[in-house]
Structure formats: structure tokens, C-alpha cells
Amino acid sequence: MKHADIIARLTLEEKCKLLQGKTTFGSWPLPDKGIPALEFSDGPNGVRHQAGEADHLGLNGSMPATCFPTAVTVANTWDEELGERIGAAMAEEAATQGVHVLLGPGLCIKRNPLCGRNFEYFSEDPYLAGKMAAAYVRGIQSEGVGACPKHFAVNSQETRRQASDSVVDERTLREIYLTGFEIVTRESAPKSIMSSYNLVNGVYANENEHLLGEILRDEWGFDGAVVTDWGGSNDHAAGVAAGSTFEMPAPGLASVRELVAAVHEGRISESDIDERADEAIELVLSTRKAVEDAASSFDVDAHHALARQAAAEGCVLLKNDAPAEGASPLLPLPAATKVALIGDFAKTPRYQGAGSSAVNSTKVDSLLDTIDGSGLALVGYEPGFERHGGKNDSKRDAALDLAGKADVVILALALDEIAESEGAERPTMRMNENQVELLNAVVEKNRNVVVLLSAGSCVESAWMEKAPAVLYCALGGQAGAGAALDVVTGKACPSGKLTETWPVRWEDVPSSASYPSDEKQAQYREGIYVGYRYFDTAGREVAFPFGYGLSYTTFAYSDMKTTAEGATFTVTNTGSVAGTEVAQLYVSKPDSQIFRAEQELKGFARVELAPGESKEVTIALDDKAFRYFNTRSNAWEVEPGAYELRVGASSRDIRLAATIQVEGTDAPNPYEGRDVSAYESADVLCVSGASFEALLGHAVPDEGPTISRNMCFRDLNHGRSPIFWLVWAVLRAMKTNADKSGHPNLNVLFIWNMPLRALAKMTNGMVNMRMVDALVMEIRGFWIIGILRFIVEFVVNLVQNATSK
């Protein structure tokens, strides 16, 4: 242990206090023992530090900070060095605000486009997600502040997020959902990692010995602190035993007493407590100096400029056609082009997501405010449509009138704030119909239309046929508007590439058959076939493939040389402007005996080139290049034989290929005797229960709602208590009314999906687990006994809290 001398001076109760929060974002201090409080803060794309009353959903105001582009945008840059610079800038701001640990980055896999938090995550690909997350962590920790990558693991939906059981086979778990965390752990040594709300194969992630002990700590060598998601603790003693350090946010002294009792009862050992306390103390002390030595302010303008650079690099040019036969592509626009600015989002930009990641920006650029400095000549601005949907003929008519007066229309379209938020899934992959209708009408008035699209994930794109140019700005942060205009005018040559596949229709996504799961289980029946791994293997049509993005110049690939250590090739800028290409290296094994994706990303490189310039590029392959996880040997294995290395501009634009021979390991076929034919053919749009169980290697338990500590409020109608039937009815009515209004209520959604035991984890000790058990008795139909027990436990808890301080 690193701090055995300190631990030796602590009582058992003091050590247990160290393993939980005292405030919403603060740890429990022991000042007389030299242990100050630690301050956490949300920080995936900027510091959200609440100086006043704090909450975990981002509902109350926070201190001003730079809102950098969200992960979806920065991932599109494929620029690890840029990620480090953003991480360092966020850490500098955190330190000035007294924050020791930033809760981020988020690297959950984008399993389905409708996940409400996809804007917070990097990619559908674990290799790319891990590399970008590791860059952020290196940047954050270079300033002495701790990083906390999240959410570990298999966290793919907001529905039932605190009690959903992610049922996934071990190979998919390892290859898809853990590889990114493996990369970030091994390559950046984060000081902490956040466990996810959900269960994984029947065990809560925060108390999952397989995840936290066997894999994270033993196999990967992680020696930092595991932090629960806020309200994500189920059984604190079981979590501590499995390898979880901090129970957040502020469960109160009752949780300390429960942990002490668990030691006395022999459920966990004091040595478990000591190990976790050592991790907690190390996190507190190793981050203290960064805050103590921090300046009182940061360079707001410099960080805004960095945010603008990142947003520009993250813009993806999806389409750039000539508006008329024989003409040049519409973009970039020449100086002095007369433009009409149309779209509500041109004045009030959609630049970040909603929920715990929402940043109180130091300033926010809009297209309307920044167009004067772009070199373009503004003819006028009209909102054109209602922001949240619905018809408005007067706005539409005014926009059409303006469109006829300009050379080019810049049309700002977006998913609104309601569509993408923590706590809820997107209801659809489609754009609001009023925006699509306006585009169709504007094109009739003026063919020269540039669409600037802001969205945290992919959208159905049939409407793009009408627009000659479409620039996907993702969620560009506070400087995103200026960045978009830099690309539109050619000050920046677009270099962004998509890090998620854009399907033609949502129904084409393998997990769409049961997403989101309203049941207790979320069954990952598609297995390894997530994103391009499915679409490329099944040969399904897509709107835009993984890795896709256009440029104002063109690139040629040549002279490929390959070994098992990597590929070397030449990239040449064959166009007339300077540009940056993102070259991607995929590995394929066409004759594989173990089913696998058609190809997998195993390396990439950004190449900056002047017109006519050539550069030799080498992309190295690491230990993840050829491996697969074998569930029979319970180890990573390599099939021997021929592999194809493919280099290209996207997963469907392969420019070079070569075959190499690789020595394998002597491993048995993990699927021998099992019918996994659906996975061998990638026919996974609607996998049967029998096929899924064959993949799992065991039957799936049939689990319906149960009346227990982990019964969600949304399931209270299955209980036997009239009081809680009324609670359920009120919550359901509030949720239904909010949904109908188009303004989902995050507080209501959080409670709706919250299990009963969270009452004891998020009320700062006002409610304890014994009181929750009394409520469970009431819901089971022991009405009088349950109420009386609750009252007694309430009084006892008050007395104990008063005497324990």
C-alpha cells in the first residue's frame, strides 16, 4: 500500500468514511489526519462545477467554463494530439475552480443511434474510442488533475439505466465493450474509473468481481480508484470487496455504519477496506497540489480558439455536389458571396448535449453573430421554422422570400435539445418534419443550399438528396459556429471522418429489434456485430460508412509495404489546396474458422499535405491487431494463417491491400457443438432466443419485475400497495404530459427509472437501507407493518445520525 502509515492511524469508521461522498461532488475529509476533501466535477467536454447547490443532472447553474465540442465531434477529428490539448485545457480550468477529478471522458460504445447520450461517446469502434479516450486522460492528468473514464461497462441505454441488466456473451464483452477501457487503462493510467449503473450478466457493474477484480485490476493492472456513478451503488460492502472505492454522491452516515457492520459480520475483511482506503487517499493526495498551485483564472480567449480549432477539425463534409451541370462543387464559398442565413439554430445554436455534461459556457458563438467576420455578405436572417417542431407559415414564407434574394442559402438544421439528453433515448432517428419541409421549399426557390447539420449522432438522411452541400457539424461546442463558417469559406479544409456508421433507416441497425429494452434485461443478441462490423459483414447498404468524410482536395494512396508489425504506404495530395487525410488500417481474415467481422479497424493516421505533396506513412499494429477472445480457453487467441491488411479512406473506400502470414496460438474452437450459424452469416437483425443462448453458452434466466430494493418506480404498479399505486400513477401522468409537450422532465425520468434502493444512496443519510426494506414490505402488501417499520427505522436513523457526527 502507498499510504500504510496514514491508514494505520485511522479507525475502521474513519476508513469507511473515506469510501463515500460527504457532499454531492465532494469526498469525506479527515483534516486531523491530513486528508482533505476531494472535489469531483462532470467534465466530458468542459468543467461543470456547481459553486452553489449541486445536483448530478446538470439542472442547477455552474461556474463559467469553456464548452469544448462534445466527444462525437472530437472523435471525428481522429486527432489524438488534439484530444490531449483539450484534456489539458479542461484540467487547467478544473484546477482554477477547485476541482481535483474530472468525470470523463465517456467511451461507451455506440451500440444504437437512439441512445440519448451518444453525443458524449466517441465511437462505435472500441479501438478508436480507446485511443481518443486515452489522449484525453493523458492531457487531463498532465496538469495534475485526475481523470475518470466512464461508464464501466456495457452501458448502452438510458431506459432503466440504474437497474437494467446487460446480458452479453463473454467474447462480445471483451472485444467490443471492454477493449476501449483496456486501451485507456494500459496507455494512459487514469487515476480513477467510473463504474456504470447497470448490471452485467446479472451482477451490478459496481460489485462485479469479474469486471473490477479479475479484468480491471488483476489483468490490466489498474491501481486507481473506482468511483460509482452518482446513485449507482447497490450493495456498498459487495462493491468494496469487488474493487469499488468511492460510493457517490452522499449516502450519509448510515452507509458508513452498514460498511462497519459488514466487517464485523465477516462479509468483507478489514484488509478490503484498507485497500480501498489506500486508493481513496492516493487520489486525494495526488491531485491536491494541482488545485493548491492553480492560478485564479485561465485564458478564456485561448481556450475558445482551441475549441474553435477542434470544432473545425471535427466537421464532416457529407456532400458537396455542383448545384448545376458543369459547375464546380458548391463549397467552399468565395469571399463576398451573398448569403441568406436561415434556420432557428443559426441564431441560437445547438452546440452541446443536455444533462450532467451541460457546461455554462464562457461565451457562445452563433452563425448570425460571426458571419460578419467570415468574408461572406449577409443578405439577411430568418428563423424559418419552429425549433421544436410544428408548422409556422409566416416564418416559412419569410424564409422563402429571403432565399430568393441571395446567391447561396446557408440553412442551419439540427436535432433540438429535447431530442438528445441524458436520461432518455431519442424517440426517432428522423429530423423534425418541419425542417425537412423547409429545405424542400427553399431548394425550389434557390438551388444553392448549404446545410449545416448539428446533431450528436446520426440521422436518417433521405432529405439530403435535395441539398447540394451538407456539412455535419456534430455538436461543436461554444465556438462551433465560427468553426463551421471557417470550413464553409475554405479557411479550413474539411478533414473530419465519421466514427459511427450512418444507416439508411434505424430499422437496419441490428439492435433495433429490442432497443431500448423496457424489460429488466437488455439482451445484446447481435453479439460482436456493432456498427460497421455488421454493415460491412452483412453487405447492407448504408447512408454513410464508418470513416467517411469528403475534402476540398483529393488524395492518392500508393506503394504499400506490410509486415505483421504494420503497414507503410505513401499518401499524395493530388488536389489544389492543402488538406489533411485520415488514413485507416483495417485487418481482415477472409478464411477465418471462427466467425468474425469482415474487417476491423486496427490503426489510423492523420496526414497533413500541401498541394502535390507526398508523405510516407507508417501505421503500426499492436497486440490487438489479430486477436479474438476465446471463451473455451478464456484467453485472447490468434488464428494462424493469412490476414489481409487494408488501407483506405473509409471502411468502404479501401485503396490498398496486401496479404500477410501470421503465426497463431493453439486454441480449440470455442463454438464447437453449438449452433452459431446466425453469427457465422451475420444474420443478426432478429436473432432467436435459442441462437442467443447458443452464443452465450447457457440459458437466459427469465426475469420479470420483482418486489425488492431494486424494483424501479416505473414498476410500482406491479406491487400491492395503494399508496405506491398512487405514486406510480402520478409519476406516469407527469412523464406522459412532459413527453406530449415535447419537453421531457429529466427529474421525472430519473425517478421513473430509479430503483427504490437509490433512496438510501442519494438522500445524504435521510433514508437508509432498513427504511427502504420497510417500503418494500409495504409494496408487498404488509401495509400497516411496513408503515410502522418505516416510522421506527426513520426515528432510529435520526438518532444514530445525530450521535455519529
Strand content: 15-25%
Q: What is the chains' assembly state?
A: single chain
CA gyration radius, whole angstroms: 27 Å
Supply the number of structural domains: 4
| Average pLDDT | 95
Query: Structural class of the secondary elements?
Result: alpha/beta
Task: Point out poorly predicted stretches.
Answer: none
CATH architecture tag of the largest domain: Alpha-Beta Barrel
Structure description:
This protein has four domains: 4-51 and 63-292, TIM Barrel (Alpha-Beta Barrel), CATH 3.20.20.300; 302-498, Rossmann fold (3-Layer(aba) Sandwich); 546-681, Immunoglobulin-like; 713-804, no CATH class. The two termini are 29 Å apart. The protein is an alpha/beta fold and 805 residues long. The strands form eight sheets. Strands 9-14-13-12-10-11 form a six-stranded mixed β-sheet, sandwiched between helices. It has a four-stranded mixed β-sheet with strand order 7-6-4-16, with no helix packed on it. The protein has a four-stranded antiparallel β-sheet with strand order 21-20-25-26, with no helix packed on it. 56% of the residues are buried. It is 32% helix and 17% strand. It is built from 23 helices and 26 strands. Helix 11 packs across helix 16 and helix 14 (393-403) runs parallel beside helix 15.
